Write the structure tokens for this entry.
Amino acid sequence: MKPASFDYVALDSLEAVLALKAQHGDEAKFLAGGQSLIPAMNFRLAQPALLVDVNGLAALNFIRRVDGELRIGALTRQRQLERDPLVKQHAPLVAEAMPFVAHPQIRNRGTLGGSLAHADPAAELPVMAAALGAKLKAVSARGERWIAADDFFRSLFTTDLAADEMLTEIAFPNLPPRAGTAFIEFARRRGDYALMGVAAVVTLSGDGVCRDARLVYLNAGETPTVARKAAGLMRGQKPSSSAIEAAAREADSEIEPMGNVHASPAYQRHLARVLTRRALTTAFERAQA
Amino acid sequence: MSELHTVNVTINGKKYERQVEPRLLLSDFLRHELGLSGTHVGCEHGVCGACTILYDGVPARSCLMFAVQANGHTLTTVEGLAKSQTELHPLQQAFHEAHGLQCGFCTPGFLVTLVPFLEENPRPTEEEIREAISGNLCRCTGYQHIVDAVKLAAEKGK
């Protein structure tokens, strides 16, 4: 229950951080909030040779609107996301999901970028990024690139980030007019990892027909799981309870929950059907409001 | 063993300087290096909340931070809540009066979590109180008396 030995460097310049990461690659880990990394180190599941403490990179802590997008720095604390008026206004799905992310003390330290780079399929923030079509900015000594959320999450705890890259910023695009979003999860206790959870993002056209829909699940596979066929069934449909039920049934074929000590895959699938129905219904109600 | 780092930290108004290994957890630093054993260690993976301290005024798990990260920062532990050795903080007094503890192991984490909560929200609803303590486990009280203690402290603090 004590971490293995490692070297530690705290830096306050991004350039210096990237140079060090280029030199050490996978041997070096960034220490941001540390709320997933340090438990893993305490259990000795992770034994990095070098920790690069990036908490001094104050320039990576921001929430602002740029070109109609919500741009959020990777070092922004989860508690800030939970309370920020810009997030509530422009990414209400994120604000709705934040209270489900662990506990208040954890959210005080945990960061947006850290949770995304950790890529735990049971976590809420990767689902937010995938549901809202976020772009993630990866920076290295070689340059920078933006990665679409759908390409970012590769498998269990694995992202598209190269060994010398750092996630520095996340861009959430504007929701279109007449959009509605909803997030629901089911956990045994508040703050526990959810047994199942779903984010729904829908858009209505002028005549009340569903123009676009997106459904993304947590704990339903190795990455945030996008149910494209189920969401596709909603397009061109009035959001009736029978159409929503058909989509919820279809989603069952697209998720691959692995089960755990608290829930069999069959029970997770049952939850997914029920939560899909509720999330879609709420998202459509919000789009109509 | 890796290189030692110097930590300069202010805890409960007192300045400390120590040399530490990077892997030393902040919780162990407080207890073993400084003798501040009021901060309890339960699970060491961020679940139980017993080791909660204030890091620059904000509740955080001291088992999920390294002592080196405290360098240049200001901490408050349960020992720093009351004004003097001979009196209790009003929230501690309310815990005493409302039977908010039995074995007491979890109590420091609850107190340190709830003091800034009540400063920010002096008249919380029961739901807000339960959300605020959702990250602290208590195996004795069933939480009801803890909630009562918070309500009592809020009532007295009016």
